[in-house]
UniProtKB/TrEMBL annotation:
Residues 139-210 form the WYL domain. Pfam families: HTH_11, WCX, WYL. Residues 6-58 form the Helix-turn-helix type domain. Coiled coil: none annotated. This is Transcriptional regulator. InterPro entries: CBASS_pafABC_assoc_protein, HTH_11, PafC-like, WCX_dom, WH-like_DNA-bd_sf, WH_DNA-bd_sf, WYL_dom. Residues 237-311 form the WCX domain.
Amino acid sequence: MNKTDRLLAIVLELQRKDVIRAGDLATQFETSVRTIYRDIQALCEVGVPIIGAPGTGYSLMEGYFLPPISFTVQEAVSLLIGMDFIEQQFDDDYRVNAQDARYKIEAILPESVLIETSRVRKVMRLLNSDKDHQLKEKEYLEKIRRAILEERKIGFHYLKKYADSEGKRHSVRTVAPYGLVLVEGSWMLVAQCDLRQEIRHFRLSRMTELIDLRERFELPMHFKLSKYTPLDDRHLLVRIRFNHEIADKVKESNYHYIEDMEDHQDGFHVVLRVRHLDEVLQWVLGWGADAIVLEPKSFQNRIREEAQKILKRY
């Protein structure tokens, strides 16, 4: 790394961290502490407001910001595709901001980089289908995002995927929203549920009649969405044998319940790990006669019953 690049990198590091020691900068940039001292002095001489002294660490004066001087083609493509993703998956507020950010990035790119970036982006595309449930997700996404940031409870009607012990799928929930997670193209809310008195997950597409209750809550100090790992309560194992001819299709399905896959002489064996057998019923039936349930016996019986119902319809 030459001196010019190192000086810029030092400023960017100072922007990222409140205080940083010369020794840490020397280690990061593989140079001597004495060289870092000279670099800090050079930056101060050209007007960069650095506060600190040798032995105590350095920081930038509050409010100072230096934008990156240039982007490589690969960096520009990464940023612009990221803007495309935000436009497609986030709410209208972020969509508008992503468009503005893209215009600003494109405005500072040298013409040669902009031309090459455009050429690369023409052969890469993010597909998104604006179906009705996705439009509703985006509408709710902004409301929930604001409630999370302002620590306000929300209420909504919820349609569960599977019925409870009483055969009901509908419920009314009041929750303290902790965070939003995009899972396989669908937004999920992680929230403390007043009804269940524990953290639960809710798909935005299954919500209706969302309201902001204006009731404040306090996010627990120990909760960090970036480190949150939901309890894995998938304790049921389902073993299925597929015909060898469709093994590639099974692999390509990337089905999230798949725990293990292995080739055997009699077929392609797959192990699913689930909470409820109903979770994988439709998926298994979709493979028709190319899939045979090996265990559990109760699931074999369920498949047989569904097949008989289908036969009666024809």
